[in-house]
């Protein structure tokens, strides 16, 4: 029996990547450290929030698997309160990304064995940010009276700023970020969810010449800034990975590929045999456990826990991020309890999003790789110089052909 379960803690970086000085604005991402800075803030009492959490960061389960150790390897110093000095119980590493972007698709595709060798297109930090001829074509093809926004923005801020006007005028809010994205926010009922999806599909074709990775539908509800809220009906329209990934290889070999949360969207459904929709880390964790119960010999479960990034990293919310990590860590024993001989679990991340850092964008960081299972021997597997080593390890574990990139942990 060999099954594999990959859980991506979206944005859970453990210290700047060696090339971090090439990323970030106005100053670089050098020194960014999602885990380390959260741990330090919590140790200083700055992660306390009434009714949510308090005190030093407590992640005993991930620490036991080697989290503190790999973070120390990444930065040279141990995050505060990650104090388990015993031999790591997980097959663990700190990993560096070779893809040029610090975005979600690049990180996930590289984890699945396919680094992104080209740079994405990005929209400039001007207003308007989108090329006028592209917007003109968008209005013609959709019949919309106009668009609002047309600038770089944080999604929650721009909905508060323009949500009421969008409801009144039936114009969607179009915005971007330091990621290669065209995002469209519109009211789920007044504008209509189906209509939002329809205009996103039109936009997806129009952004292709600009080498943009994703169009994202960001539906919201509420009537005023006091109660505007984004819903779980977010939908990402992504370009295809540049080569077949681990998911394609598993599917082609007749295996089930169970994709929980955003995974199917991130891979444009390529190589996915079942898309399992789930919103919010608690539900995503529940659905992951259900998918594991459904997985047969040779199958792959791939989950993305998006809250770390979307609700806490981008929102620069230290206590929220800390509480989400503690929640996840607290549920790991449930996952360990359902493992069978031959199972391999991988906990990792796709990039950083340091909630203490400047701005609201991702940070170029190393990520943790914590692998475990009933027959997996724990040890530090050295710094990995591509996330593709994760995909190669899973491929070897599942008895799939190896890919073009990366080296399995099991070989070292
Ligand atoms: O500010 P919001 O809308 O959450 O946007 C964030 O989510 C997008 C995709 O993950 C990124 O572009 C990032 O800026
Ligand atoms: Mn991400
Ligand atoms: Mn993000």
TrEMBL record:
Q: Which Gene3D superfamilies is this protein grouped with?
A: Alkaline Phosphatase, subunit A, Phosphopentomutase
The gene name reads deoB
Keyword Isomerase carried by entry: yes
List its EC numbers: 5.4.2.7
Q: Which UniProt keywords apply?
A: Cytoplasm, Isomerase, Manganese, Metal-binding
Q: What biological function has been recorded for the protein in this entry?
A: Isomerase that catalyzes the conversion of deoxy-ribose 1-phosphate (dRib-1-P) and ribose 1-phosphate (Rib-1-P) to deoxy-ribose 5-phosphate (dRib-5-P) and ribose 5-phosphate (Rib-5-P), respectively.
What name has this protein been given in UniProt?
Answer: Phosphopentomutase
Q: Which organism is it from?
A: Cohaesibacter marisflavi
Q: What one GO molecular function would you report for this record?
A: phosphopentomutase activity
């Amino acid at each position: 029996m060999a099954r594999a379960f990959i859980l991506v803690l979206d944005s859970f970086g453990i210290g700047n990547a060696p090339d971090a000085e090439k990323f970030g604005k106005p100053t670089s991402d050098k020194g960014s450290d999602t885990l380390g800075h959260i741990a330090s803030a919590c140790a200083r009492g700055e992660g306390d929030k009434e009714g949510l959490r308090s005190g030093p960061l407590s992640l005993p389960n991930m620490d036991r698997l080697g989290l503190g150790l790999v973070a120390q390897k990444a930065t040279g110093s141990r995050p505060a309160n990650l104090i388990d000095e015993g031999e790591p119980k997980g097959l663990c590493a700190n990993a560096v990304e070779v893809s040029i972007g610090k975005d979600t698709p690049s990180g996930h595709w590289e984890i699945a064995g396919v680094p992104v060798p080209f740079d994405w297109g990005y929209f400039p930090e001007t207003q308007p940010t989108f090329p006028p001829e592209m917007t003109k074509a968008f209005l013609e093809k959709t019949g919309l009276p106009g668009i609002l926004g047309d600038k770089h923005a944080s999604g929650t801020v721009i909905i508060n700023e323009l949500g009421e006007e969008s409801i009144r005028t039936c114009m969607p809010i179009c915005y971007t970020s330091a990621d290669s994205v065209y995002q469209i926010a519109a009211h789920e009922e007044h504008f209509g969810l189906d209509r939002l999806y329809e205009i996103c599909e039109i936009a997806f074709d129009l952004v292709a010449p600009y080498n943009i990775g994703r169009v994202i539908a960001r539906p919201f509800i509420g009537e005023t800034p006091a109660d505007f809220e984004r819903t779980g009906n977010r939908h990402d329209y992504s370009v295809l990975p540049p080569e077949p990934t681990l998911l394609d290889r598993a599917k082609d070999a007749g295996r089930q590929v169970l994709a929980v949360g955003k995974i199917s969207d991130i891979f444009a459904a390529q190589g996915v045999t079942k898309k399992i929709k789930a919103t919010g880390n608690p539900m995503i964790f529940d659905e992951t456990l259900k998918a594991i119960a459904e997985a047969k010999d040779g199958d792959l479960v791939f989950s993305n826990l998006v809250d770390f990034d979307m609700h806490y990293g981008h929102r620069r919310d230290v206590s929220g991020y800390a509480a989400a990590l503690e929640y996840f860590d607290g549920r790991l024993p449930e996952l360990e309890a359902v493992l069978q001989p031959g199972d391999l679990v991988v906990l990792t991340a796709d990039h950083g999003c340091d909630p203490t850092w400047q701005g609201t964008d991702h940070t170029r960081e190393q990520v943790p790789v914590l692998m475990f299972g009933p027959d997996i021997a724990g040890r530090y597997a050295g710094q990995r110089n591509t996330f593709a080593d994760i995909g190669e390890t899973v491929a070897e574990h599942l008895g799939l052909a190896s890919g073009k990139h990366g080296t399995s942990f099991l070989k070292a």
